[in-house]
Prior knowledge:
alpha/beta; seven-stranded mixed β-sheet; 24 strands; binds nicotinamide-adenine-dinucleotide; Ald_DH_C; oxidoreductase activity, acting on the aldehyde or oxo group of donors, NAD or NADP as acceptor; Aldehyde_DH_dom
Amino acid sequence: MSLSFEEVKKLKENAEIKTQAFINGKYADSLDGDTFDKVSPIDGKVIAKIASCKQADVDLAVSAARQAYEKGVWSDITPEQRKNILYAFANLVEAHHMELATLETMDMGKPISNSIGEIRRCFNGIRWFAEAIDKLYGAVATTRPSINAQIVREPYGVVAAIIPWNYPLMMAVWKFAPALAAGNSVVLKPAEQSPLTLLRIAEFAKQAGIPDGVFNVVPGYGETAGQALALHMDVDKITFTGSSEVGKLIMQYSGLSNMKRVSLECGGKCPNIVFPDAYDLDDVAKQTAGAMFYNSGQVCDSPTRLLIHKSIKESFLKKLIEYSKEYMPKNPLDPACSMGSVVTGEQMERILNYIEIGKAEGAKLKMGGKQVLCESGGYYVEPTIFSDVNNNMRIAQEEIFGPVLSVIEFETEEEAIEIANDSIYGLCAFVWTSDLKKAVSLSKKLKCGKILINSTGDGDWSVPHGGFKQSGFGRDKSIESIEQYTQTKLTWIEL
Ligand code: NAD
């Protein structure tokens, strides 16, 4: 869709910003009336004051979710009814998708063209899970003839979801769509940096026919609203996407409370291994730049460690730098923008600090490294590339979550595997080669939840996403994610 800057500015003027929590089918202030400032990273200006939920608000939301679940207003209707309502919900998201895309860009600074694509994936995702609902079966076990042993999957009841800021609506859809499809009630906590789209769609959930109490949104800080949810005695399951550091806390909160089930999608430091026999090195350079600087590098499965074969290092770097120039930051509301701001001033400082660390560690700064568009008041960092990085350096080991690429050289396949696996993370690895045997062999040896061969994207609802090691456990997307929101029950009948 071709859109002009002027049209996007108009969308911005008309976008509806919801500032209140959504509990039991109604928008409401936090009980103590407290709010936090929502700053747009585009220009550093406060655009809203959002309800800051605390324990008491979380208690209300969980209680509403519990009552709705126990009454069976959602869990006990027919699968077909649930499917139709989720479809209606998706249709409303689709009908408002340009507004939602504009809100997403205002909220966290991603290019408007990317936001539009992501919101499309959101309503398609809700449909994917809606469609799956009445196509799932239980099982009857093979026992002796006098027994009928049925194994069914039941929803947990109340599912809490804690969402990060990098894909504010999409990460929420990854969680609430399968959780609702399975029949649970949900309480969602958006990241304090990016609550706008999730708050906006709450009323669409109600309009679509999702009963009161089944879909709740409690904006607030991690240490207050998030912790209250994770420690809550009446939440049955918590699903979290965010940093590994907070993911570990979530596991502790579960153990300190009611042993609620936990699934975690956490950080990544993904290797992108380029062999000289890749089918088209020019295209690999182009795709690497695109994947690396998408969303200003604030992506858990960004290819942040480029492992390049020594024989092609210099020529590949030259191409990569040329393609990376296309990602010089612009105003993200400009349809011509391919890389916008980073999410907050704090995140920008963190990224700039890592750039200083890289220089001090002895890596060679080949491109970028600075804050730009300072006059805008927003938070913009150049696409940045370090070469001559050693995998022991902090810029190779720690998740920067910004547009900073570390280039590491290798000579043999074994060395590439060793470097790739030398990480606390295990989310995703990319491999570029036209040798099928080598690709399959690497796929077996790389310790990650996801291996992409000659590709940078797995944006399909039918495949699972999730990590090994400290990248977390549990899987989003695909049928596996619906299973994650259910538990098996055996009914053993003596005939
Ligand atoms: P974060 O861990 O700081 O925050 C994530 C969420 O947790 C936010 O909603 C926050 O308010 C909440 N939170 C913070 N402290 C909490 C606490 N003590 N108790 C309960 N909740 C708390 O992460 P972030 O900065 O928002 O997001 C970036 C991180 O998310 C990166 O590490 C990135 O890799 C990860 N991420 C992972 C995936 C994946 O699928 N693996 C996807 C997107 C982002």
